[in-house]
Amino acid sequence: MSATSPTDTGIDLDDVSPPKGTVWNKSERRKITMDGLWHNNPGLVQLLGLCPLLAVTGNLINGLGLGIATIITLTVSNIIIAFTRNWVRKEIRIPYYVLVIASIVTMIDLSMNAITPELHSVLGIFIPLIVTNCLIIGRAEAFASKNTIKRAALDGFMMGLGFTLVLIALGAIREIIGSGTLFADASLMFGDIAKDWYIKPFEEYQGFLLAILPPGAFLVMGFLIAMKNVVDKKLKS
Amino acid sequence: MKQHFEAMKKAGASLALFAFISVVLVSTTNSLTKHKIEENQAKMLLKALNQIAPNNSYDNDLANSKIIIDPAENGFIRETPVYLATLKGKPVTAIFEVTTLKGYSGAITFLLGINVDDKSVDGLRVVSHHETPGLGDKMEIRKSDWVLGFDGKSLGNPDIEQWHVKKDGGDFDQFTGATITPRAIVNATRSTLLYAQENMDRIFMTHLNSVPNSNKQSKTKGTQ
């Protein structure tokens, strides 16, 4: 897999042209996967969904929570948009996407509240944030509306996973620098077994508040993007 | 021109159709889950109430022994429900569901249990808020034990002048990165305690008179 140069991986909303939108073979699956996880990563390359990304990643578990909620929403919305892509007129596609995404998010929110109230009380605050995540509508417009259901589902899942990995990295770095801990609050999501996961690498460390505050989010995010560019350059040479 | 009009009509009609489908789906989900969500919320309310008044400390149907205090009466922000725990007909604890708007973002609602005898805090639990995750949410019991610092405190202990966060010269800790949230809670707790000092007996009298059977109620706790 040859790495693309950083300039090629800029915001590329037309990454798949319509004729290719139906191919389903190993190399295409690989391409969609690698796009989501690395080459066109929503967090590091497309820079979509920065609002929730920066807002909640004060610790690792929050990042993971938003990530899971995003994977579910993005996969479902991609599937529905790909499924209906031939019936939706071009002129009304944007309000249609908004309609679909808002409905899905509301339905997921209600169902989770009814079925798993404990999980909902943890992830609940992240679910409304997903409506503000332009990643979802970005993938609907750039990918799902031009691809088969299978491809759109894979793209949704992989983009969501790529986003989640960035959230986890960002959350972990900010948590370690900001509070000097890792996996704090894990028991909220995984139950009592997770109480022991809590790590405090440096006993005496007091924490560096800036990292938890929004400016810290931008700083860490900037370093992550820079690191990705360095890796890309290394891979190319 | 006519073509354009046709296209607009089609687009409008299909958008209306999609909107209709979405409405049907969302409202179906809502009606399917509504009952269950209310049930969950009632369970969570009772669980929260029991954290303040353990269920062996009272013998009435606590979640339904509630009176509403009118906001005009006392300067509460909105109608404030009070859950009244009694043991053998004798008042034990009043649990106020206090809402304050002085938090960092939006309303903070918390349950404040006030002991009837000495008007001290039996317990405080935040039930809903929109404070910044990782900063303001340390007032949740599952994130830190900050709220336990209120237990046993009353307006004489510490003195009423000390019922502020440390930053304002009082006795109560704020937590790292957030002063506004703890300040909102401390201040709302102080004013609720002041209200309780004046009105506690009257609240219970009103309630016990309005439910004549509550004295004779059997001690079965089947509903809990």
In short:
The complex is a heterodimer of chains A (237) and B (224). With 237 residues, chain A is mainly alpha-helical.
Outline the secondary-structure elements.
The complex is a heterodimer of chains A (237) and B (224).
Chain A: H1 26-39, H2 50-56, H3 60-83, H4 93-115, H5 117-123, H6 127-131, H7 134-142, H8 149-179, H9 186-190, H10 209-212, H11 214-236
Helix pairs in contact in A: 1-8, 3-4, 3-7, 3-8, 4-5, 4-7, 8-11
Chain B: H1 2-52, E1 66-69, H2 71-74, E2 80-87, E3 90-100, E4 108-115, E5 121-128, H3 180-210
Antiparallel strand pairs in B: 1-2, 2-3, 3-4, 4-5
Which features would summarize this protein structure in a list?
heterodimer, A: 237 residues, B: 224 residues, alpha+beta, 5-stranded antiparallel sheet, 3 helices, 5 strands, 38% helix, extended, disordered C terminus, transmembrane helix (chain B), cell membrane (chain B)
Q: What features would you describe in this structure?
A:
With 237 residues, chain A is mainly alpha-helical. Chain A has one domain (24-236). Chain A contains eleven helices and no strands. The two termini of chain A are 14 Å apart. Chain B is built from three helices and five strands. Chain B has helices at residues 2-52, 71-74, 180-210, and strands at 66-69, 80-87, 90-100, 108-115, 121-128. The longest helix of chain B is centred in the N-terminal third of the chain and has 51 residues, at 2-52. The chains are: A mainly alpha (237), B alpha+beta (224). Chain A binds chain B through residues 55-56, 58-59, 62, 87-89, 91-92, 95-96, 99-100, 102-103, 106-107, 110-111, 113-115, 117, 121, 125, 185, 187-188, 207, 209, 212-213, and chain B through 7, 10-11, 14-15, 18-19, 22, 25-26, 29-30, 32-33, 36-37, 40, 43-44, 130, 132-135, 142-143, 176-177.
